[in-house]
Amino acid sequence: MVQVRMEANILGANELLARKNRAVFAGRGMLVVNLMSSPGSGKTTLLEKTIDHLQGQITLGVIEGDLYTDQDARRIEEKGVQVVQINTEGACHLDAGMISKAYENLSDREMDLLFIENVGNLVCPAEFDLGEDFKAVVMSVAEGNDKPLKYPLIFREAKVILLNKMDLLPYTDFSLERFGHDLEQINPTAPVFKVSGRTGEGMAEWIEWLLGEVKGKRAENIKAF
Amino acid sequence: MHEFSLIEGVLNMVRDSASQNNIGKVNRVKLVVGRLSMALPDSLHFAFEAICKDEDLFREAILEIEEKEIMCDCLACQRSSELKDIYSFICPACGSNRIEITQGRELYLDYYEGEEVNGAGSNGG
Ligand SMILES: Nc1nc2c(ncn2[C@@H]2O[C@H](COP(=O)(O)OP(=O)(O)OP(=O)(O)O)[C@@H](O)[C@H]2O)c(=O)[nH]1
Ligand SMILES: [Mg+2]
Ligand SMILES: [Zn+2]
After folding, report:
1. Pocket test for ligand 1, best of A36, A37, A38, A44 (most atoms within 8 A of CB)
2. Cβ-based contacts of A9 with chain B (< 8 Å)
3. Does residue A22 lie in a domain region?
4. Which of A157, A209, B74, B106 could form a disulfide linkage to B34, CB 3.0–4.6 angstroms apart?
5. DSSP secondary structure letter of residue A58
6. Residues B35, A183, A167, A50: what is their CA dihedral angle, to the nearest 10 degrees?
7. Which residues contact A61 (CB under 8 A, 6 or more apart)?
8. Is residue A222 part of a domain?
């Protein structure tokens, strides 16, 4: 009998690729945001609204992760923003290898801001570094209060949290107070933007914050050279 | 969850290493899994058994999983503690939410054991 010690990170291959992606993105001074949520929380809708606010001010690209369809990618395309679709064929998350291929397929690889819409899932995407600058988590008031406590890792990893479908708040039993209290325990530092993809409520504050991040990234890049 | 692809990744690593080390049969694979990693031990066992039975190299292999507790260092009171509730990132000693997770995200292949081709081999343990 032989014992072979490996001490090898099971996600090591992904992490290596993620590091490569991060270096490529940083070299171009672009901000990369990994957008995650449960299915249907409003990632694509908020992307559309965000694009409406930013078009003309900065240059954008989108990588759309989806199990099988290209519906979300078409919605982005209609906005006139370059987009590449990744079909994961049933896989529950995007990984760094998929991102590097998709990025190569963008028509223009120089941009200020690259959004990655991850597969709708609060569990698996949290573990796969894509090489992004930060994770943004979307959650809607229609999903109920229990999500942060049930999926703490993804909420803890988020740099920013978007609470969507605020227009529906009066029709739900969602408690903003409890949400705030739960996040105090899980992620006390992430800013929370209360928004509605339907009415546009709260979008201005989110956009202002996001533009701050884009500028910060650009400044970092200038310093590095 | 992606336990199947995780196990496939593990078996790929073991297969490569086994062929380099002249190992023809794997008896045991040992993983270390932190409680904060999103991989569920039961699902890992299930995937392991399902995949292994189809390949001679792994047919008799058993999977051992060592789970790691979630540990944190508190930036407020400087104490280290175990976090029992994975949904509450609060220092159990002083209640501060300024903590750093120091253990619990592990997800790695520790070692595997097997038998060399042509029996006799004995490179020790
Ligand atoms: N009332 C209301 N509906 C919304 C809001 N945002 C999105 N929706 C609706 O919610 C549904 C899902 O929105 P999407 O933007 O497709 O959600 P998604 O997170 O991209 O979904 P997947 O990509 O399938 O995970 C659509 O019918 C949207 O019109 C909102 O702020 N208020
Ligand atoms: Mg979508
Ligand atoms: Zn403390």
Report:
1. A44
2. 107-108
3. yes
4. B106
5. B
6. -80
7. A81, A82, A83, A84, A106, A108, A111, A113, A114, A115
8. no
State the nearest Cα–Cα gap between A65 and chain B, in angstroms: 16
| All structural domains of chain B | 3-70+103-117 (3.30.2320.50)
A114 lies in a domain? yes
Cα(A149) to centroid of ligand 3, in Å? 21
Per-residue pLDDT of chain A (225 residues; tens, 9 = 90+): 999 999 999 988 899 999 999 999 999 999 999 999 999 999 999 999 999 999 999 999 999 998 888 999 999 999 999 999 998 887 788 999 999 999 999 999 999 999 999 999 998 898 899 999 999 999 999 999 999 998 999 999 999 999 999 999 999 999 999 999 999 999 999 999 999 999 999 999 999 999 999 999 988 887 766
What's the CATH number where A186 sits?
3.40.50.300
Sort out which chain B residues have CB atoms less than 8 A from A6's CB and list them.
13-14, 17, 108-112
Structural domain that includes position A15:
2-215
Strand partners, B23: B116
What ipTM was reported for this prediction? 0.86
Helix (H) or strand (E) holding B28: strand B23-34
Residues in chain A with CB shorter than 8 Å from the CB of B47 are none
